[in-house]
Amino acid sequence: MNRRQATKILGLGTAGLILNPSMAYTKEDQMIQRTIPATGEKLPVVGLGSWQQFDVGASAQETGSLKEVLGNLLDKGGKVVDASPMYGRAEEVIGDLTADLKSNDQFFLATKVWTTGRQEGISQMNDSLRKLHRKKIDLMQIHNLQDWQTHLKTLREWKETGKIRYIGITHYTDAAHSRLEQILKTEPIDFVQFNYSIRSRNAEKSLLNAARDKGVAVIINEPFDQGALFRLVKGKELPTWAGELDIHSWAQFFLKYLIADPAVTCVIPGTSDVGHLLDNTGAGFGRLPDPTTRKKMVDWLRL
């Protein structure tokens, strides 16, 4: 069962919930924002990942829905878009579409360096600037810690000269969490990105606390555990108390669990579907669960 099918079942089984969860909030409402500790700048808590979804051709048929996704992200108050050279044409597609929307400078564009060697890293990052139609990247991250010590020196130089605004490191597996934690405790890092979901909670052991204590902003990837969470709730209705937390879909249930941790700066679920984008951004509005309710959420899913 995919997310679209799960949503259909949810719609049939939860009478009284609004048809389009995101429409509960207007432009007068503001998405929840979190502060980047390094500067005090604020970011909206729901952004957009681009792995797979944005690796498409240049035709209008292939990019049309993606352009709508980006436009609606801005309309709902989001701005963080995450990419990487690893993601095929994602950087180029994002750059072209945000330029077409005449809104490139309204996005907080994050990408990564994913290669070995100083000069190779410099060349790749210059390519990213070109593809993203930028003279300055908001956040440059070292993808999966590849040759991180070499690239970190370059990123510091680029930050000093104004070519990037923030420095980050990333990974996507639980096994890398201890290494990420060690680096952010010993190096001046602005952002750390890692996997975390209501089912995969290894980050709660110490990594989230370490980021908070060191003043490092946190971006969450794999918030739906590669879609496994939607399979987990197949045939299940939302608990009756979900509405008390302004939760109107399983996607919002999963995302609000993460956003409720004050160490989390932004979650970046990837999608090429406008309906899913609107649903995801709905998690950035309204009430958030307290620690007791977060435990209740985990228990409800019997994880």
UniProtKB/TrEMBL annotation:
Gene3D superfamilies: NADP-dependent oxidoreductase domain
Transmembrane segments: none
Domain of life of the native organism: Bacteria
Signal recorded as keyword: yes
Pfam families given in the database record: Aldo_ket_red
Signal peptide: 1-24
Residue ranges occupied by any NADP-dependent oxidoreductase domain in the UniProt entry: 46-289
Alphabetically ordered keywords of this record: Signal
Protein name as catalogued: NADP-dependent oxidoreductase domain-containing protein
Organism: Dyadobacter helix
Higher taxonomy: Bacteria, Pseudomonadati, Bacteroidota, Cytophagia, Cytophagales
